[in-house]
Write a structure and sequence with these properties.
Shape: elongated
Number of domains: 2
Strand content: 25-35%
Strand order of the largest sheet: 4-5-6-9-8-7
Order of helices and strands: HHHEEEHEHEEHEHEEE
Number of helices: 7
Helix content: 25-40%
Amino acid sequence: MGTSRTPRRHAIEQALRLRLRDLPAHAPLPSEARLCAEFGVSRMTARAAVTRLVDAGLVYRESGRGTFVAPEPSNRRADGLVRFTEQMRRSGRSASSRLVSAGTREATEHERAELRPGRGRVIEIRRVRLADGVAIAVETAVFSAVLASLLDADPTGSLHAALVGLGRVPSGGRATVTAEAATGEDARLLDVPAGSPVLVERRLITDQRGHPLERTESRYAADRYGLDVVFAVDPA
């Protein structure tokens, strides 16, 4: 049974891959029942074929709604930082945010060293960043507690715009990028399998006077986001 099911699953997968080339982002795929009828296979075989496409990042599932064509990854130049909202607008997509948590807490050792927060307190705002309703990243932004008024800002909007309104303009900084396995929380918030690859970017952003302003960790679903690199080759 296993040997006969494998080529049927492969045939369905290849047929769907061909269809995806002509479908726009977020277009629905046929339901499992329709695939079963079209290809004369069991629901298990149809589901296995679609799961291969999900794992490849070509389609995504929404519980209770169905399976849809995944948009192209939204890449960013690695040598610059564009606000997520603006980046999505440039790529023709609609950005939004979903608040996970926000509050004040004691600073960690690294946060004390990098942010130099007054009285050792920081505010932390954790959000899921979405493009056209699809979760792209889990973003955890940490600021000195002197900027506690950020907690009153609209969490679905741009925190950088709110910072500018407070007279602190994000102007520069540094970042490190690593690859990690998705944690349980990543899996829940990004709707990806636990242990799947995530692109992790950790940034320290400074303001217009060079003062530390924001310490942020962004955990991107690796099949939905990327960084483009422009480089020069050192002479031999």
